[in-house]
Write a structure and sequence with these properties.
With about 100 residues, the protein is of the alpha+beta class. It has helices at about 10-20, 25-30, 35-50, 80-90, and strands at about 50-55, 60-65. A two-stranded antiparallel ribbon has the order 1-2.
Length: about 100
């Protein structure tokens, strides 16, 4: 039986990075259930589209999300990724600050 979910891998990667801004892509890939290469591709696509920024700190990346960006599907354009992240946020976790 085929499995499907309501959220895309892109949304799952955003949620992982929101939960842990200095997560290794290897760990994100395991959490999402995709390959590390797929996680790298998704992060690159999200970065190129302006949904996140990557900043190098030593040997690690720190990710900052632009929570004001709209969702991409025409039916969802009136909503921001910050709303999606807030809906799935773990209680008690600090919010990822938006990009300036």
């Amino acid at each position: 039986m085929a499995q499907w979910t309501f959220l895309t891998n892109h949304a799952h990667v955003l949620l992982c990075v929101s939960d842990n801004p200095n997560a290794r892509l290897r760990d994100v890939a395991v959490q999402v259930g995709i390959t590390e290469r797929a996680a790298q591709r998704i992060v690159t696509e999200l970065e190129e589209a302006g949904y996140l920024e990557r900043e190098r700190e030593g040997r690690r990346n720190i990710y900052r999300l632009n929570t004001a960006m709209p969702l991409r599907h025409p039916l969802d354009r009136d909503h921001r990724i910050g709303e999606l992240l807030a809906a799935f946020a773990n209680p008690g976790d600090p919010e990822t600050p938006p990009l300036p």
